[in-house]
Design brief:
Helix content is about 35%, strand content about 20%. By secondary structure, it is α/β, with parallel strands linked by helices. A 7-stranded parallel beta sheet has the order 3-2-1-4-5-6-7, with helices on both faces.
Length: about 200
């Protein structure tokens, strides 16, 4: 008997090239066979990774530029969830998380993925972001952090009352398929590492 796939909606600012965006692209491709996937982007431009999205994923643009656009974005997302019978909402980054909590009813499962140390990236920079986080977060919301420091920071500032998990950034299996030479002919190997150097990454 044919079983209808569960519908999951992903929300992210844009598909600019970055850690959160690459993580979402990997996730979209990993879940393609298991879910009917929908994707809401909050920016119309800078979506350089759009061609990496699986063909079966349905994409919607909900423009969001500042906190003043929050009510309109929430209503748009709420209507989209209702019209498409979405059962799971997964977000990446701060504003998609806030919008998802305000747009979803208790029937929808909400999963918020946090990429950065929120207190430094948001709360200390803009106190409004702290209060929006504090007032919208509920025990039923699931928090996924990319490191223990990120999860501990959320707990310290907001208070983790529901499920919270550490889920490190995915590395696609194809990166492990590279054949490593058995020996180095010239006696040395040069390695280049490119990343965002922060104390949280050094100590974790």
């Amino acid at each position: 008997r044919y079983m209808e796939k569960k519908k999951i909606l992903h929300i992210i600012n844009s598909l600019e090239i970055g850690g959160a965006e690459m993580l979402l692209i990997t996730l979209l491709n990993e879940l393609e066979q298991h879910f009917e996937q929908h994707l809401i982007l909050l920016e119309e431009k800078n979506n350089k990774l759009l061609d990496k999205v699986p063909r079966g994923c349905i994409i919607e643009i909900v423009p969001f530029r500042s906190v003043w656009h929050l009510p309109h974005a929430v209503l748009r997302v709420r209507r989209y969830i209702r019209d498409n019978a979405i059962s799971v909402v997964h977000t990446q980054l701060y504003w998609p998380g806030i919008i998802s909590r305000l747009a979803c009813s208790q029937k929808q499962k909400v999963i918020n993925t946090i990429q950065a140390v929120s207190s430094e990236a948001s709360y200390k920079v803009n106190r409004l972001s702290y209060w929006l986080e504090k007032l919208t977060y509920r025990k039923r919301h699931i928090i996924i952090a990319v490191s223990k420091i990120v999860l501990d920071d959320f707990d310290q500032w907001i208070g983790l009352s529901g499920e919270g998990y550490v889920f490190y950034n995915l590395i696609n299996d194809r990166y492990f398929a590279v054949q490593v030479p058995e020996r180095v002919i010239h006696g040395q190997v040069s390695l280049v590492a490119v990343g965002n150097l922060r104390w949280q990454k050094i100590t974790n």
